[in-house]
UniProtKB/TrEMBL annotation:
PANTHER family: 6-PHOSPHO-BETA-GLUCOSIDASE (PTHR10353:SF296), GLYCOSYL HYDROLASE (PTHR10353). Signal peptide: none annotated. It is an enzyme of class 3 (hydrolase). The gene is bglH_2. One of its GO terms (cellular component) is cytosol. GO terms for molecular function: 6-phospho-beta-glucosidase activity. Keywords: Glycosidase, Hydrolase. Its EC number is 3.2.1.86. PROSITE patterns: GLYCOSYL_HYDROL_F1_1, GLYCOSYL_HYDROL_F1_2. The lineage of its organism: Bacteria, Bacillati, Bacillota, Bacilli, Bacillales. GO terms for biological process: carbohydrate catabolic process. This is Aryl-phospho-beta-D-glucosidase BglH.
Amino acid sequence: MTNFKFPDNFLWGGAVAANQCEGAYLEDGKGLSLVDLLPSVEEGRWDALVDPQKTMATKYNYYPSHESIDFYHRYKEDIKLFAEMGFKCFRLSISWPRIFPNGDETVPNEKGLEFYDKVFAECHKYGIEPVVTINHFDTPVGLMKDYNGWANRKTIDFYLNFCETIFKRYKDQVKYWMTFNEINMILHIPMFGGGMDITNAENPEEMKYQAIHHQLVASAMATKLGHEINPENMIGCMLAAGTTYPNTPNPNDIWKAMEADREGYFFVDVQARGYYPSYSKRLFKEKNIQLKMEDGDLEVMRDHTVDYVAFSYYSSRLTSADPEVNKETEGNVFATLKNPYLKASEWGWQIDPLGLRITMNAIYDRYQKPLFIVENGLGAVDKVEADGSINDDYRIDYLREHVREMGEAMEDGVELLGYTPWGCIDLVSAGSGEMKKRYGFIYVDRDNEGKGTLNRSKKKSFDWYKKVIETNGTDLA
């Protein structure tokens, strides 16, 4: 396809998360976020997720999130750079513990609310539409310690209090919302996704799905609340997406791939269709899961579905039903076989632009709701040359091919609201706790040990993306 023109109102932008960019981790009354407990990659970051109680009792040398890239104090400089690129929107999250430090308070922290007032005002100064994730892997630590997070139904009320506070406060500043970031990740990293410790659970799968039920009810109730406070609000769900391919034409492989995709669709089936999918009955039976529901749960999920389906896409996945073949290798948090037809990034994430088109068509066919790609990008080690330039042609190549396939999918009939590549400015990697794994158009002088000036500089991809936005996607050269 050549010279596809994106719609005039297409939302080009970029994406970050509070817990990976803000820093100022205890400033102005902020409480602890889950990420604030996680040490650097050199000190066993993923061990912290396996044993959160040990992490809370252990002192490490360096926590990357504590200062991160200091967006908290540098947001004006960063948003000005986004505006220079021509951003139409900016996806960010509101730190829950910055507004409610322990999570269960009734009165919000005014200093935290004021910070986002300033951020949103700065966005609107340049005509940038904020796209806000309400809970992006930062359930307050207090809710995990005192209630075991989303495993406890009380967390629904705490979340809704948070939602009501920000919906009312930013009623005239924010139109686009998402209830949870990558809601399906609770199955893979329950501490991050659910703010809970499942290590001592009698049936860990039941605890996870009970927490999922609480999040799905909370999402529906938040959608209802958001529409009541401002009928103009567009409220979406958000999935970590990527179609799973069967390793061979063997029907067993095809079935295994379908099951893998259903694992994620399960969440959006509820949020976009309004009911638990038919296959959930067998799933719960085989995993010996008995969900505790309250009167009205199913009705609120049915009556308050989302306005759009947002998702992250980094790569497709590959699976086999053969246990000998299916010796899975790590790719992101999702285990996947290596696809011999695809190249991979330095971190082993397989690069599959056509997979984005396939994923978009699959999601749109299933839900018939507008889509929003809110994460996509290439994590890589960037080299600063002697003259200060950063020639990230590999990132340009990755994004160019993905934007091209976005256009193809839209030609296929898929309705797409916008595109916000992940980590538009370098930030701390959630997956590995590193700074050297960079995604941004803007380089931040900070290394894995926390050294560096934090100065911002433009990469080659900065000017490329600026041109893409200026031409509304017609010039990808």
